[in-house]
Amino acid sequence: MRLTGLIYRGGIVLAYLVMLLPVVLLVITSFFRDAIISFPPSGFSLDWYRNALGRDEFLDGFIVSFKVAAIATLIGVPLGTAASLALVRSEIRAKQAITTFLLGPIIVPGIVAGTALYLTYLLAQNQFDRDIVGTLPGLVAAHILLTIPWTVRVVIAGLQGLDRSVEEAALNLGARPWTVFRRVTLPMMRPAIVAASMFSFIQSFENLELTLLLVGPGMSTLPIAMLNYLEFQIDPTLAAVATIQIVVIAAMMLVTDRYVKLSRIV
Fold first, then answer.
1. What is the pLDDT of residues 52-92, one digit of tens each?
2. Are 209 and 17 in contact (CB under 8 A)?
3. Rounded to an integer, what distance in angstroms lies between the CA atom of residue 200 and that of residue 69?
4. Is 28 exposed, middle or buried (0-12, 13-18, 19+ CB in 10 A)?
5. Which of 124, 146, 170, 202 is the most buried (most CB within 10 A)?
6. CA distances from 128 to 106, 115, 121 (A)
7. What gap in Å lies between CA 74 and CA 65, rounded to an integer?
């Protein structure tokens, strides 16, 4: 029994090392002084952070990524929440099939989904004689397909853990169904909705595969700006940009977990 416990703990430690070691090495690399990465480094410097913050393509990419992720989250989370509520609380047929359909965009490989959307947009452009590929609305519509399934996945898990006796008590005391939903159900769903919003925003902000074929001239997200930079230069600047992203996302998760315990939902 003791040996089994040691093996179990050792497996957990090994799993954490496999996940965290690349992140730690990335952060350390961002402080290397040399443009050509080598071990051990000749020294440490903040020059690559200054270079990253001073390049317009990264700033412009960050603004576009933030705008697309914010709009997609604001639209996708309410839609996904409504769909989750219908799937959990109603008696509609083929619930499993509908759930699988809604989760499809995160099951299908990103590059396949991006190619399919690109071809669909081209057909729609020819049909309606309007530009879709390379426009902000077209990119937002594609990212909504990411935010809805993440919302459905998280909110369904949250709804299944709710105690319905509180809602039944409110109904028995004379509250109307809309009042029960607004004052009882929705506050109980808030942790799941907040967590879904955070994960949806992160998935949209960091997405590369789905976005790659849908951006146009003069419009680039941060992941694509990083990919374009890597095509011509190899230095720790990208490590600095990635480290800034890690810090921002980690801060978002810590703040969210401070008010909504993510471990209860995901």
1. 888 888 888 889 999 999 999 999 999 999 998 888 887 77
2. no
3. 8
4. middle
5. 146
6. 29, 20, 10
7. 14
